[in-house]
Design a protein that fits this description.
2 copies of one chain form a homodimer. By secondary structure, the first copy, chain A, is an alpha+beta fold. Chain A has 2 domains: 79 residues, Winged helix-like DNA-binding domain superfamily/Winged helix DNA-binding domain (Arc Repressor Mutant, subunit A, Orthogonal Bundle), CATH 1.10.10; 43 residues, 2-Layer Sandwich (Dna Ligase, domain 1), CATH 3.30.1490. In chain A, 42% of the residues lie in helices and 25% in strands. In chain A, helix 3 packs across helix 4. In chain A, 26% of the residues are buried. Chains A and B meet through helix 5 and strand 5 of A and helix 5 and strand 5 of B. The structure holds a DNA duplex.
Chain lengths: 134, 134
DNA sequence: AACTATATGCCAAAGATTCTCATTTCGGGC
DNA sequence: GCCCGAAATGAGAATCTTTGGCATATAGTT
């Protein structure tokens, strides 16, 4: 249940926050820009400010509800944190994004960090290229 | 030799380009922002425009002389392409960056791409965290 | 040395994100 | 259910990073 997600992370349950959460939940696998979320809400007839979208997304990120990525191009995209960590494969042709996980890679990362006396708090692995069928 | 690097990639050998190349060559392992490069040049008494720095860095990237990364924070950083591909370990505490390569990971990436009918043209792997001794 | 295509500098402009502040809304207590 | 203080929101200004336009300067050639 939505409102509980917010309460659980210590955020007041407000309309804009609920709406933004819904947008993110509804989007299977899509990676939205703050602007995207804003537009989607406007199109849905909601009254919301772009600044609020940015603020809320940042709060969600801090609360661990959302992940922020920087794909090529530089602007940030957001996606709901559905618990399971994953990496990305991004088509530079179509922008299509596929997610994946590989235990061997995850394990090697830990191993490498250990060798360097490094404690990993997060990581990003993005493969750029294109799909054969596009 | 510097000027040849430029000629080889079809760029006219100009003073600003040489200076920027020098800055990048001199920086062992540092990752500079366009602004950083600009400041370093100004501090060194060079007369250069920020726009030129951006233009040149972009040209260098297109020519394969430098790599552009997007670490957390959103702004782009550049480093000289010294031939060998590598990944990064970034300390969120100090900003320190260590480079590494792991054949097993590289190989798994190819394998995963293959399974998804994806042709990799580039990739980014960044581990975020902090070093034990800081 | 002269010529032409390119590159550069400066400054304006665009895009993304953050800040300010007056107004509105949430959540708890009465 | 209504009131109050704290927190959140909306609108627009402000900031930061990056790009574009244009007149001038420069590299490379003849």
């Amino acid at each position: 249940m939505n409102s509980n997600d917010l309460k659980n992370v210590g955020l007041k349950v407000t309309l804009p926050r609920m709406r933004i959460l819904e947008i993110l939940e509804r989007s299977e696998g899509e990676h939205y820009t703050a602007e995207d979320v804003y537009r989607l809400l406007l199109d849905a007839g909601e009254e919301i400010g772009l600044a609020t979208v940015y603020r809320v997304l940042t709060q969600f990120e801090a609360a661990g509800l959302v992940n922020r990525h920087h794909f090529e191009g530089g602007h940030a995209v957001f996606e709901l944190n559905r618990g399971s960590h994953h990496d990305h494969m991004v088509s530079l042709k179509s922008g299509k994004v596929v997610e994946f996980v590989d235990d061997i890679i995850e394990e090697r990362q830990q191993q490498i960090a250990k060798e360097h006396g490094f404690k990993i708090t997060g990581h990003t692995l993005i493969l750029y290229g294109e799909f054969e069928d596009e």
